[in-house]
Specification:
Layout: E1 2-6, H1 11-24, E2 29-34, H2 40-49, E3 54-57, H3 60-70, E4 74-77, H4 84-87, E5 92-95
């Protein structure tokens, strides 16, 4: 399983092509999306349009707790993540450039 950390809305269009390719190869992909009132409608539309499997979080600490519980093979980030050392106890990580 691969998790995509979507801290900002603009990370979503960067990760969608990657997840589509992976899913075509049989890889399970999920999105961890940080709640943001300014973009709530855009997120809701994108989730429905692209049939995304999403777990909603409020903070990066919430995201870490989810990552640790899921023990995904990989977590892809669009930017820094302050808990990488803890994450690497159960998963590998990659940073997507933008």
């Amino acid at each position: 399983m691969i998790l995509f950390d979507v801290r900002e809305f603009y990370y979503l269009p960067q990760s969608l092509p990657i997840s589509r390719l992976l899913e075509a190869q049989g890889v399970e992909c999920r999105y961890v999306v940080y709640r943001n009132e300014d973009f709530s409608e855009l997120y809701a539309d994108a989730v429905l349009k692209d049939s995304l499997t999403v777990h909603w979080v409020d903070t990066s600490r919430d995201a870490l707790e989810y990552y640790l519980a899921q023990s995904a093979d990989w977590v892809f980030f669009g930017n820094k993540f302050e808990y990488l050392d803890q994450l690497h106890e159960v998963s590998k990580s990659a940073q997507l450039g933008h």
